[in-house]
Amino acid sequence: MKALRLSDLLIRQIDNDSIAIKYDDKILRYSDWNKQSSKIAQNIISKVSSDSLNITVFLPNSINYVIAYFAVQFSKKIIVPIGIQSKRPEIISTIKYCEIDLIISDTERLESLKDILNDYAYRIEIYNIDSDEMISLNTNKEPIPKTDYIHNSGSEDDIAIMLHTSGTTSDPKRVMLTHSNLINNVESNIQSLKLNENDKVLISMPMYFGYCNTAQFLTHIYLGASMVILNGLFLPKLFFQTVQDEKITNFTGVPSMLLMLLEYRYTDRYDINSLRYICFGGGKMPVEQLQKLVKTFKTVGFVQTYGQTEASPRTTALLPEDSLRKIGSVGKSIPNVKVKIIDESGNACGSGEIGEIAIQGKNVMKGYYKRDEITKKTIVDNWLHTNDLGYFDGEGYLYLTGRKTNMIISGGINIYPEEIEEILMNHPNVKEVCVIPEEHAFLGEVPIAKIVVKDNTVVDNYREFCADKLADYKIPIRFDIVEQLDKTYNGKIRRNRSGN
Questions:
Q1: Rounded Cα–Cα distance for residues 267 and 431 (Å)
Q2: CA quadruple 187, 189, 191, 194: dihedral positive or negative?
């Protein structure tokens, strides 16, 4: 069988006239999707030089997003998605680091992008997907220099997408996922959940998140199945109404979403018998609340998962038959993925022994873009070192116990304290700062900032200072002014978690 690229997933559906995407009252059929993405791809190929591989998609969850996604694939370029909630420093940092020549966006975001890019150091173009118009900016400037880091050859081992992971605006980092990485993870996901072309998924999380990109979006294209995209914020009433009206069979969310469903008082008004699975991961799920969910929604199979962007991302799943018997576990590895627990020396840990989780499989990333040294430390002997801690029980079920890194997971979204600290250290009255997680009933964790100021007689609005530099979800919910920060023997700030 011929190895597949992402573009092949849609090409295979070229004669399929069934509905691929539904978004509000708009629909997109597979056959039309092929035509629209192909048309834009030709535009990209004719306007963008052959040495320009990376293209940014700056669009919300929408039909435009999915058309743009495959337009980039058909043009044999690489998608570099940027969330529309990102602020100027985040956008500029990414397009410079990824050597972006072209941004695909829409009319609603056009003026904002023009303003952001007005003082950008290089020539850049914006393709307005609404008007099919190419807008050139900074035409008097030079094109961005290329490092010639990526060499795509037209094979399944080419990079298909580069997703955001840890990194600051001055030192960004992107995960390079190949066509093979993603399609292998899609196939593992389908085998794990026994999905088929009759399934219909409801999408609410940002589509550029690894979790959504593979387990929902690409998985259902592979099958030629239907997808329904929720417009706007996730709300329980809208969720239940949509599941009932559209006969949704599966949904993937984060713990905060599930807790909202549990608190909704009118669930008995809706028929959700079509819903086979609710998959969830990306944060802490209180065991008592999970027990209530399983017992409240008896017809739904709850699947707790574990993964990492670097692993495309899904790695394990606790299937419904074990949801109560092994509650608190993230299950066993999905087909064609290996997981082991290792100690500090790299030796395998025994049952019940806590160590670092390591992953092996064709789903493991090619590496971090332009970060070879970090890649070498992360992928050792073909095993991805996750920096997550856990253990296996006597039956081989995986349990998570913590993280070796400073990452904060809030509502399923990864937040990196160093990025926030870098911004705050630019404030004229900040001497030292440490951002740590605080437990939150709904979101699992939220960031708070502990700040040592230079002049404690000055009252500053640190939230306002962060507002135009960081996406809203990254802004600490509290800024605590402290006299000093705890430090290690060699003077490094000690990152005590909140409450310790």
A1: 51
A2: negative
Are 257 and 283 spatial neighbours (Cβ–Cβ below 8 Å)?
Answer: no
Distance CA 362, CA 311 (A): 9
Q: Where are the alpha helices (DSSP H) in 389-461?
A: 417-424
* Contact in structure between 300 and 277 (CB atoms under 8 Å): yes
Q: What are phi and psi of 335, to 5 degrees?
A: -50, 140
Task: Give dist(CA 332, CA 486) in Å, integer.
Answer: 39
**Rounded to an integer, what distance in angstroms lies between the CA atom of residue 80 and that of residue 93?**
12
**Tokens, residue 381:** 């002997």
DSSP 35: H
What H or E segment, with its residue span, contains residue 255? helix 255-263
Strand order in the sheet with 478-481: 430-440, 444-453, 478-481
Average pLDDT over residues 84-101: 94
pLDDT exceeds 80 at position 1: no
Q: Which one, of 334, 224, 230, lies nearest residue 279 by Cα?
A: 334
Answer yes or no: are the C-beta atoms of 287 and 327 closer than 8 Å.
yes
Is residue 99 helix, strand or coil?
Answer: coil
Backbone angles phi, psi at 122, to 5 degrees: -130, 165
Closest by Cα among 55, 50, 215, 184 to 129: 55
How far apart CA 270 and CA 44 sit, in angstroms, is: 45
> Measured between alpha carbons, how far is 378 from 381 in angstroms, rounded to an integer?
10
- Looking at the chain, how many residues does it have? 500
d(CA 216, CA 219): 5
Q: Which residue in 437, 411, 432 sits closest to 492, CA to CA? A: 432
Residue 286, judged by CB atoms within 10 A of its CB (0-12, 13-18, 19+), counts as middle
**Per-residue pLDDT tens over the stretch 371-420:** 999 999 999 999 999 999 999 999 999 999 888 888 898 988 889 888 89
Whether the CA torsion 371, 372, 373, 376 is positive or negative: it is positive
Q: Say how far apart CA 249 and CA 275 lie, in whole Å.
A: 4
The answer to whether residues 291 and 316 touch, using CB atoms and an 8 Å cutoff, is no
Contact assessment for residue 140 and residue 118, using Cβ atoms and an 8 Å cutoff: no
φ, ψ of residue 127 to 5 degrees: the values are -100, 115
Q: Is the peptide bond before 437 cis (omega within 30 degrees of 0)?
A: no
CA distance 163 to 98: 11
Residue 381's Cβ-count burial label (10 Å; 0-12, 13-18, 19+) is: exposed
Residues with Cβ within 8 Å of residue 353, at least 6 apart in sequence: 341, 343, 391
Whole-prediction pTM value? 0.89
